[in-house]
Amino acid sequence: MSQRSPGSSEPADAPAGSRFSYPAPSRPPEGEQLGGGPGGGPGGGPGGGKDGQQDEREHKGALSFLRELPVLIVLAFVLAVVLKTFVVQAFYIPSGSMEPTLNPGDRVLVNKAFFTPHRYDIIVFSDPHGASGPDRGLIGGFFHWLSEGLGVAHPEDEDFIKRVIGMPGETVKIRNHVVYVNGNPLTEPYLTPDARASMADYGPITVPDDSLFVMGDNRGNSNDSRAGLGFIPLDKVIGGAFVIIWPPSRMSWVH
């Protein structure tokens, strides 16, 4: 029998000069890296492995969002101001001149984009007799426009809301509690019996070509084209009210 030398895996009587075969060193399990420390990467660094790369990407994403947040806030404010100035705006009803269609405290949305007034429309307009504002210059005017859009500054002129009755060039008169335009009686189902009875005879009067004749639905309690307001120039029209948004119990389309 062959004898083995102590500490050797080969037979003791192996021929001199023969080549011995040694078992191959064992490989680490799949996914394990040599020299890895507790972090899993070479040298045991904390950034090694897929988990470290994912944490780094999430960290960079959070920092990128924080850098972009001020820009997003500014863009949101600018968009809100542009929408309020040129597209749609909410208005508060301060008086009872449009009752029962609109009550004091109602809030309505007004369409300002591509709006063209027609008879029976309820319109919001600036004071036709308002004084022109001071000359603020280009930069001052921009900041005043921005502050108005954000609701910080009040408009220079008071705004009114009334119903369009007479269009440019038409003749308006009131006889026996009925409104006539160009000799034709108007059908006004939005008037209460008291409002109709309160109308005194008026006119005839012809509306200028660049203006409108307006009245409140509460005919006995309305400062309108029959009195102090007079005719409303078309360039003073802000837009047309189309929906009541507040209070919730009165949410409805405006007719």
CATH architecture of the domain at 89-130 and 155-249: Ribbon
Number of helices: 3
Q: How are helices and strands ordered from N to C?
A: HEEEHEEEEHEEEEE
The gyration radius over C-alpha positions equals 41 Å
What labels describe this entry?
single chain; 255 residues; alpha+beta; 4-stranded antiparallel β-sheet; 3 helices
Polypeptide structure, described:
- There is one protein chain.
- With 255 residues, this protein is of the alpha+beta class.
- It has a domain at 89-130 and 155-249: Umud Fragment, subunit A.
- It has helices spanning 49-86, 137-149, 193-197, and strands spanning 88-92, 107-111, 122-126, 159-166, 171-175, 178-181, 184-185, 202-206, 211-215, 232-233, 237-246, 252-253.
- The strands form two sheets. Strands 1, 2, 3, 4, 9, 10, 11 and 12 form an eight-stranded antiparallel sheet that branches.
- A hairpin with a 5-residue loop joins strand 11 (237-246) and strand 12 (252-253).
- The chain is elongated and about 90 Å long.
- The relative contact order is 0.14.
